[in-house]
Amino acid sequence: MPVTLCTLGVGATFGESILQDLPRDSTVVTQTTCELLRVEQQDFRLIWEKNKELMNDLVANCKLKNGFGPGVNSKSPMHRPKSPPTRRSLSPDQPNPAEPITDAPSTVMGRIGWTLRTLLLSQNTCLKDRKVSGKLVRKCAPGTELVDWILSLSPIIHTRAQGAGMWQALLEEGVISHVAKEQGFKDKCFLYRFWQDEEGAGALPTMEDINTAEEQIHESLSTLIQRGPDAVLRMILRKPSHERSSDDLETIYEELLHIRALSHLSNSIKRELASAVVFEAHPKAGSVLFHQGDEGRSWYIILRGSVDVVIHGKGTVTTLQEGDDFGKLALINDAPRAATIVLRENNCHFLRVDKDNFNRTLRDVEANTVRLKEHGKDVLILEKISTQQKQSFSHFKYTVMAGTPQKMLEHLLETRLDGRGNFGGGDNFIMTTAHDPFLDDFLLTHVVFMPTHHLVDELANQYPFYTSLPDREFLLACKSRVVQFVYKWVTTIRQPVFDDESAVEFLEDLASEVENDCIQLDALQEEASLMHHAMTQFRRYQEDRKANSGQKWKLPPCGQPIGLFSGNKDSRTIIMPQDDIIFRVYCADHTYCTLRLPVDSTAETIKLCAADKLKLRPNDELLLVEVKSNGERVTFKDNDISIPTALSLNGRIFVSPKDHLDALTCLSEQEESTQGIDGDLELFSTKELAYYMTLFDWDLFWCVHEYELLYHTFGRHHFGQITANLDVFLRRFNELQFWVVTEICMTSSLSKRVAVLRKFIKLAAYCKEYQNLNAFCAIVMGLSNMAISRLSLTWEKLPSKFRKLYTEFESLIDPSRNHRSYRVSVSKLQPPIVPFMPLLLKDMTFTHEGNKTSLDGLVNFEKMHMLAQTLRTIRFCRSRHLVLDPPSPKSEGEVKSYISCLRVIDNQRILTGMSQKLEPRRS
Ligand SMILES: Nc1ncnc2c1ncn2[C@@H]1O[C@@H]2COP(=O)(O)O[C@H]2[C@H]1O
């Protein structure tokens, strides 16, 4: 029954056997309507004669591609054929030990084969014409006889196995082959023949040939003795796993012990691997082992040769050599291939472990650290982390420890964003971030190591701005990933993205590009709708901004909270960098000017404007200074920004010549209490106070962007970004804390003081109940202020129930063991929460100061991960809207305005003095 050997498509050729005047060796059947170009035999021969070299290649190539029979058969014994005697396509998935592993015999092996054949024929021993299944097979010999013969040639060939290995080395290169092309070399009765005799008997040797062969035999044998063992090993490795004997497995195991890429693995794993590794050989330099974007199916170790690692848009980023491994990223991360692997040399040999075996044997025991290099330098360091995902193969995955910003982004796009299909932060995304928050960490911290304009440049590089690439799926996946990233970025970070000019320009470009692609590629519909959604959010944001543009803020002269001077009176009005702020700048003689400048003005701008208005001598070296209510002076650096918002509660800005700094004194009003809104604390219901305080604080907290904590931690001047909303929230903490102290110290009657103390403890309890932990901690810290804690008469009169409650609260804010009590109790809460912000900032500072931002030129992403953890806490706290049951309204209006502006003395010396007056020390 005829069997289809292969199917040829457009561009293929067939019928080359006319060159050899042989009958057609197979039937060609058309499958569909075909149009063919035909070259007649005479013309073909003519062209052939004129272009022998070229045509030889062409024919050999066609045969290789088409999987046809023998190639051009040169009769010259010393001729090294262009194409191997046995043309075949290497099938890496089913290694057949009967097939050669090289495209053609090497010169050395070709010569050795010729020598052996010449001598065998001259001795007329085992090479004979034999009948096999009724067919004459010319000049063939059983394996056993060939081994006998080679053993007889030299005393240094000790064993039959050694002899068989030598013949296998020849078979591997196609110098000899099994007659039926089914066996590797075996010391059995299988018949083998030299390639010269495959198409009928080759030329017989002349006397001169025999003399030459005798001269060469010694050298030939010593080469074969060297090559034999490796050939035997390869033959074993090419056997299917179930055919490997225990001796075979032992041989493989011993080999694995010496492979560098496996050195970190235990011996028992290597034993398991012995049955899992597959040998794969590729004869041609320039061939592609796999492409970037392909699905990862195997892990490779280079046994021989070298490969280039090539990345789209970058070219060859590194070269891997014998003993190196590659291809496990895709397997470990369940991601597409991160690079294309191209052979640098002919005849590269690999050990391959296929995905299932890799997952079963290696995934969980893989090296803890993987370093990726580009041009000789580390660009990405990955470390194994536990994922605890039950449904996945393993409990491990590689996460980024350090990297260049560009490589980290590339890795992120490839591994954390599904090329097609995983859109809009569905369950899949949440699952990924829960176990491996790489994407989220990157979005939350990139401003530290990759400013937005760099990020968008890089994203533009990663989005292929063209519509044709040989691999359409890869092209679509690249585009899709960038869109998904951008969508996540826009929806999680929002305002700072929308306020950045380079980001906006990029978003506009990308949106129109995706729209075009959608038409041209007839795909990317979902990406287009993501971009549409992102742009809708952006337009909405723009409209809001427009409505709120020209906001003016005011730092009131008497230390009251910063408030909106004009603009939209929404309680959640965010302070924007371009908003104006009105504030005073004083001179040493306490004269002042009032300035109105954008919030993001630098200290230098403020200094120059103030100097101009106050007519200070321009040639004096001027400084901008904060004078606190206790007289302390803090000098601003010229590039500091957010100056008015960053002042202490009752601090004032001064401008002064450098040498007059010591003469600066605080204003008398700074030592007094700030002006609060009139109201008697005792007349307000405590619950109502706590309720409106929580709503008020929640709104302030809501305005703080996570990035402000980063700017605050790294230093505002570092990023040139304001931290005004965070400043206002932190001021609120201090205001509450000192308000508590001020109110008690200002209550001269003991019984009234006890009542106020009681009220504050109750207020703290309600704040705790409402999960306003910022206010709770501020109040309890205020109560534990030395000026209050020393009021023993007052505390003694406090009912024991309240004293107990206070002790409980005090233990909650106990800073020992890194605020353990607070952390434990917060961890049990569900949002919405107003967190104790100073502790979050302390955590950020601790991480920042204890960890370098860059390590050997790479971003220390571990640090970013830690910072992002804290930032995520903020996000978690706000992840649900604040909905509280309102208390029965008693004096809503008064309470609301009272809590928005509290009277405060923030000078500890004065407060302690007041306290001493209230209750002088008992002797
Ligand atoms: N700089 C590099 N970037 C990406 N891949 C690399 C780099 N250097 C080596 N490789 C290897 O190239 C392989 C391509 O396939 P994988 O993504 O499975 O795993 C990748 C790494 O093992």
From TrEMBL:
Keywords: Guanine-nucleotide releasing factor
GO-annotated cellular components: plasma membrane
Domain DEP: 121-196
CDD domains linked: CAP_ED (cd00038), DEP_Epac (cd04437), RasGEF (cd00155), REM (cd06224)
Domain N-terminal Ras-GEF residue range list: 396-539
Segments forming domain Ras-associating: 579-660
Molecular function via GO: guanyl-nucleotide exchange factor activity
A Pfam match: RasGEF
Chain segments carrying region Disordered: 70-105
Superkingdom of origin: Eukaryota
Domain named Cyclic nucleotide-binding: residues: 1-47, 261-362
Domain Ras-GEF: 685-921
PROSITE patterns associated with the record: CNMP_BINDING_3, DEP, RA, RASGEF, RASGEF_CAT, RASGEF_NTER
A GO biological process held by the record: Ras protein signal transduction
Family: Belongs to the RAPGEF2 family.
Descriptive protein name: Rap guanine nucleotide exchange factor 4
Species lineage: Eukaryota, Metazoa, Ecdysozoa, Arthropoda, Hexapoda
